[in-house]
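Reopening this one. Same input as before:
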Amino acid sequence: MILAHAFHGALHLWCKDQDKEGEWKPGVVISGHFNAVQDLSWDPEGQFILSVGSDQTSRLFTTWRMQDSKQATWHEISRPQIHGYDLQCLAMVGRFQFVSGADEKVLRVFQAPRNFVENFANISGISKENLLQSSVSVLNPRNTLP
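Same output, byte for byte:
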């Protein structure tokens, strides 16, 4: 697969066709930012992506499993930060904790509340216990979610 980022924030995906040598087909990708994506990071377990952009938002994308379907699709499920400045950088410091930096050169730390983790478990199909057990962070070593 090839994943490319366009200037205005769009992501494009091409998948190599296994049946036809040398042929590539466009694929479905996550979307959401309406301006340049400045940084993105996978969660430490690889189950969701968090991105920040020049549209002054951070966005969280994960798989969404319909109850009657085995196939999962990727969707934006949260905007953990909506800011007054363009967001420039992002670092995951734990499973549900991240630090972001914006144009005003201030770093902000965010931690997901328990309610978000419960809703995330319902949407993604991952057990809540599994998510809570793997939520240890550098900033919160006792593993306590509010």
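So the earlier flakiness isn't reproducible anymore. For the record, Residues 141-146 have pLDDT under 50 and may be disordered.
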